[in-house]
Amino acid sequence: MTHRRLEVISNHLQPTGTFPYYNADMSTNSLFKTTLAPPDVIFELTASYKADTDPNKINLGVGAYRDNDGKPWVLPVVKKAEHAIVGDNSLDHEYLPIDGIKQFTEASVRLILGQNSPAIAEQRYASAQTISGTGACRLGADFLYQFAKGPVYISNPTWANHRAIFQNAGFDDIREYPYWDPKTRGLAFEALLDCFHKAPNGSILLLHPCAHNPTGVDPTLEQWAQIAAIAKEKNHVVFFDCAYQGFASGDLEKDAQAVRYFVSQGMELLIAQSYAKNFGLYNERTGCLSIISKTPQGAKEASSQLCKIIRANYSNPPAFGARIVQTVLNNPQLNEEWIHQLKTMANRIIEMRQALYSSLLTLKTPGTWNHIVDQIGMFSFTGLTPAQVKVLRDKYHVYMTTNGRISMAGLNTSNVHRFAEAVDWVVRNVQ
Ligand SMILES: Cc1ncc(COP(=O)(O)O)c(C=O)c1O
């Protein structure tokens, strides 16, 4: 028995000499005594929605695409790729390289930077396949914790997981930059710029390049240029979390323009990509982290460090999702089909924005509602208060986050007017 083990046992010996394992009051003696962690808001919301037996319930919580029948959609092009993979006898279940499938990571970099990016031509990038977008954010945070100093700036508000990811990576100085202006229901641009200007040199800026979660508000390209100028001047480290390329506008190129602009300015940066939304591969956990460096040598070094972090974490990534994505992205015909299906998803969401807006206008719901159609991407930040959100849930069986965010994909032609009527009621009757 090791010294450490003896010590643990002697610390837990009772006066009678019995081990705690036989003590009736186990909780006070557990080696793992802790407190109950709060449940995850989104996953809890989905569980409550599933438990609700009302036939008219509406789930606007989780950011996952639904078709007009409220069902998850497996993209036909994904099905095609799956069949091709299953029928390919050359594929096996050997371990992948630590940084994943090369055809996948290379295609991912082309997708976000563009075919003709100088960073690609000059081999100034390091990429690793990751456990979806969350894993890409975490890998990037782990890397930055070792090689950058911070503080870390996340937007106010932001995706609920950002703070926790950076905290768990070890950062203890995580600050917020202004993003949402409740008065204009738009971007608090001047305040954001001012914050980046005053931030200590070398701060880490976590930015959403398109379809900002939760607000659905993105800077214009001119505004991105001003953000890039300040980031460059102050040597800030830019980390783009790109979970929605193609979802925001239905246009892959347009949704990548912020990232491409920063790269065109010669900036070093990190990019997290997720294929959960734009391929509908939510549970395949397929993503990519790329680091754009100034030199090929810098990229090589970054790549080796990413591999070192991954090896000690999950060793190497799973294959199936990345095989699907690389099959599609590297085949011109399948790629065309994917772009078409991506547009189908984006357009349905845009139509729902219009339908919700029209219903609220028809009902003459007090307030202005242009933001519903001005915002883009998966989410809309409605401006509804926590009290109104609660009544929507209790009285109308509508499930959404307390901050008033709705996932547009949860709306369809059968429920959108009913939802508008519920909103109309709470706006008139609840503060
Ligand atoms: C801003 C943002 N980043 C990252 C993610 C990560 O998603 P996933 O890990 O499912 O790819 C999400 C998902 O909702 C998101 O909204």
Automatic annotation (TrEMBL):
Segments forming domain Aminotransferase class I/classII large: 56-423
GO CC terms of this entry: cytosol
Protein origin, superkingdom: Eukaryota
TM segment ranges: none
GO molecular function: L-aspartate:2-oxoglutarate aminotransferase activity; pyridoxal phosphate binding
Record-linked InterPro entries: Aminotransferase_I/II_large (IPR004839), Asp_trans (IPR000796), PyrdxlP-dep_Trfase (IPR015424), PyrdxlP-dep_Trfase_major (IPR015421), PyrdxlP-dep_Trfase_small (IPR015422)
Cofactor(s) this protein requires: pyridoxal 5'-phosphate
GO BP annotations, alphabetical order: aspartate biosynthetic process
SUPFAM superfamilies linked to this entry: PLP-dependent transferases
Keywords: Aminotransferase, Pyridoxal phosphate, Transferase
EC number: 2.6.1.1
Name of the top EC class for this enzyme: transferase
Quaternary structure (record): Homodimer.
Family: Belongs to the class-I pyridoxal-phosphate-dependent aminotransferase family.
Name this polypeptide is given: aspartate transaminase
